[in-house]
Amino acid sequence: MNDRALSLIGIARRANAVAIGRTAARRWLKRGKLLILAEDLSERVKNDWRKVAHDFRIDVIERWTMRELGDALGRPKPVGIVLITDPGLAREIKRLSG
């Protein structure tokens, strides 16, 4: 994992500043600062989450595959939806992801 932004996602997990997956992300939407959607999610799912993020004024990044996100988060399975709740980490991940 040589992508600095992806490394910060792992740091966010260790700092308990991340909601992983659909259910957890919905639960933490009010605290959300950055929504990360895997690029290989279905378009329907991405569209649904884009609308939710817009309603909650949360920035969205669509980058990395579900496998890459799962690996960054130390998960044995792919992860398609990640919500970052820490404003500083969210800002830095967004900046580094281009």
Describe the protein's architecture and organization:
With 98 residues, this protein is α+β, with helices and mostly antiparallel strands. The protein has a single domain (4-96), classed as 60s Ribosomal Protein L30, Chain: A, CATH 3.30.1330. It is 48% helix and 15% strand. It has helices at 4-14, 22-27, 43-55, 66-72, 87-96; strands at residues 18-20, 34-37, 59-62, 81-84. Strands 1-4-2-3 form a 4-stranded mixed beta sheet, with helices on both faces. Strand 2, helix 3 and strand 3 form a beta-alpha-beta unit. Helix 1 (4-14) runs antiparallel to helix 5. The two termini are 17 Å apart. The relative contact order is 0.28.
Main features:
single chain; alpha+beta; 4 strands; globular
